[in-house]
Amino acid sequence: MAAPWWRHCRRWSTVCMNMSSYETVWHFNGRSVSSSAFLLGQVSWSSRPGNERQPPASPAQRNQRMSSFTSSITRNKAQILGPTLQSCWCRTIHSDAKHKDPFTLAQRDLKSLYDDIKKELFVSRQELKFLCDYYFDGKGKAIRPMIVVLMARALNIHSNRDGDLLPGQRAIAMISEMIHTASLVHDDVIDGSDRRRGKRTINEVWGEKKAILAGDFILSAASMALARIGNNMVVKVLCQVLEDLVRGEFMQLGSKENENERFKHYLEKTFKKTASLIANSCKAVSILVNSDPEVHEIAYQYGKNVGIAFQLVDDVLDFTSVASQLGKPAAADLKLGLATGPVLFACQQFPELHAMIMRRFSCNGDVDQAWQYVLQSDGVQQTNYLAQHYCQEAIRQISMLRPSPERDALIRLTEMVLTRDR
Amino acid sequence: MVIRRRLFLLAFPWSAIRGTRGLFSNSAPSNWTKVVSDAEKIVGYPTSFMSLRCLLSDELSNVALHVRKLVGTQHPLLNTARGFVYDSRNNLQMRGLVVLLLSKAAGPSHTASELLAHDMHPQVLSGFLSHRVDLKEWTVSDGPLKDMQLGNKMAVLSGDFLLANACSALAQLNNTKVVELISSAIGDLVQGIYYENLSNTENRRTNGIDVASWEEQMFLSHGALLAKSCQAAMELAKHNKEMQMLAYKYGKHLSLSHKVSLSDLLTKHHLPQNLRNLGHLADIHSLFSLLNKAKTSRNQLDYSKLLAAVKSEKGVSSAVDLCCYHSNKALEAIQAFPSSEARSALENIASTITKF
């Protein structure tokens, strides 16, 4: 057990060297979590330049620390991944009475979410209206608005107010779902996907051009709603999301030859494509109620870490979930030529994957072969661990807020992110 | 300007490869060119349609790299990209110029509107040029299938990229009212393009549409952005609601007049689309036969022949009337502005459109 861990950890640490300090790696789970930055929690994205690098620990220190690292990971694995891994959302809800269930708690604020969105999408042409409303059918998980309203309430209470949402905060919950949906519509065009949330995609039914226009329209409606909030900082924060989404999509088109760079590239892409929206929406609701930049940063960091964890789990589900559960075909990422976390980890055990990654699984049999390698490796497990680390950092961040049922629900949510199966 | 243009050629090599020449480059400098260059002198510098920042960004050069692969294929994105270069003198640039002139005519402090005209406005438009591209289902006969699909991806992504950039530029203006105005203009554009597609497929073979719905459609797809940008420029300079409305009207009627005008018909390289638009007003079949008549032996259009032929058509006179009507409306709106060099430039622009 220890030997392979050694290997992975060493590889990991080289990855982390680029982004965070050595020191933080060894403290990540247990002893001095609060005093040192967390494993990848401090990865600086484009917004924060210049990481401090600390000199690597001596080999002796490293060995000593390694053992505690290894044991804590194993322990952690048993705790978090063990019994609940395969359970569905609803089962985990009742497993821990201490923390409120996020879904129940957010429900009152999300009741009219989809109706409100449809009202924003004001179009005279019937067909375009139908296309724009297509995905706002209440069948999505609406996980982004849920995080946003819980965060807003937690922050309101933290700021000595009652929890009730400000109108602007409610709008941001709505806007986050609209931006997400618009990006899905365009992604489906780019990827040529034919199914989404158990439905045929817009591009599949109405063609690519109409799908692009529908996406554009949803976005324009979202940005009008955003402008009406009337806060310039909020506008800037959410415009950053739009830039990140496109940049993330561009990053997805390229692949890196170097293995460490490739992992960094993957995490950065994951941030831009998924986490940026959640992080910046959380930041936006904090701006509306609190003027303290430190509070904004807590909200942002929670969203960022949960967002990355969410996507990592999504990438795992692409390998472990059956098609019917996910609402889209399995191994979809491989078929698109994308090397996600599980593949990148598997590549450490099966170097044969390297060539396949570089040719984006384009040769006959590549997808099947890569799929086999991933399942034979512990790539899935390792990606899950990584997701756990991000969740723990999210918990560390959100715990700095004053206690409230909503804050606890956000903590609970990180666990549900890890254990979801669809 | 020259440098920017060179940069652009660097980024978009096909324009040099294909060597398609714009109309203005081979016809004698028209009234229009003079009006525009006079107006540019008032604003102080040539209005290039794409900011340097945008051209130099990694992502766009990334697009250029990918799009290079498309050279030699039939992907419509190439035409669009070529359009970036050639439309620039006529459309995108003209619009930016109008916004600048308006803020100058309305009074002092137009730095913010410069940002609006230079950074945001062109990007929104070019973004939509990409999204306007006819993405079609490619078959093997169109060339290497992978390249064509790549072209589709690039069209979507570069459009999204330019729009996202435009939004960021908008956010920098620190005025949420302006953000709302431009966002709603984007919504109008989308509806207009959508509408245009539908009517192209549904109504093309029937007798066309009436003037009112043609105007509505043209306003959405061409006028709304200019009208709302003009209004936004007034808002940025803190002018009152009344001035805002006048600027809006000027922009609206100018773009409608421009849309009906024959100058627009002849300065665009994708001519059939314009003929079709006009054709709704005139008789579409005779227009297409005109188009055929005006073709030279080498199967290229002789524009002077076409212009003469189009002018002599009966149905076209109603288009000319409509053009004058909107041009006058635009002139009317601008009269409320204090007399200045910038105002006369705006008057020149509006009246030159009707000089065929």
Automatic annotation (TrEMBL), chain A:
It is found in: Mitochondrion. The keyword Mitochondrion applies. Its cofactor is Mg(2+). Belongs to the FPP/GGPP synthase family. SUPFAM superfamilies: Terpenoid synthases (SSF48576). This is All trans-polyprenyl-diphosphate synthase PDSS1. Keywords: Isoprene biosynthesis, Lipid metabolism, Magnesium, Metal-binding, Mitochondrion, Transferase. It comes from the Eukaryota. Pathway: Cofactor biosynthesis; ubiquinone biosynthesis. Residues 47-68 are annotated as: Disordered. Gene3D superfamilies: Farnesyl Diphosphate Synthase. The lineage of its organism: Eukaryota, Metazoa, Chordata, Craniata, Vertebrata. The keyword Transferase applies. InterPro entries: Isoprenoid_synthase_dom_sf (IPR008949), Polyprenyl_synt (IPR000092), Polyprenyl_synt_CS (IPR033749). Its EC number is 2.5.1.91. One of its GO terms (molecular function) is all-trans-decaprenyl-diphosphate synthase activity.
UniProtKB/TrEMBL annotation, chain B:
The keyword Iron does not apply. Residues 1-22 form the signal peptide. The keyword Transferase applies. Keywords: Signal, Transferase. GO terms for cellular component: mitochondrion; transferase complex. InterPro entries: Isoprenoid_synthase_dom_sf, Polyprenyl_synt. It comes from the Eukaryota. Gene3D superfamilies: Farnesyl Diphosphate Synthase. GO terms for molecular function: prenyltransferase activity. GO terms for biological process: isoprenoid biosynthetic process; ubiquinone biosynthetic process. Belongs to the FPP/GGPP synthase family. This is Prenyl (decaprenyl) diphosphate synthase, subunit 2.
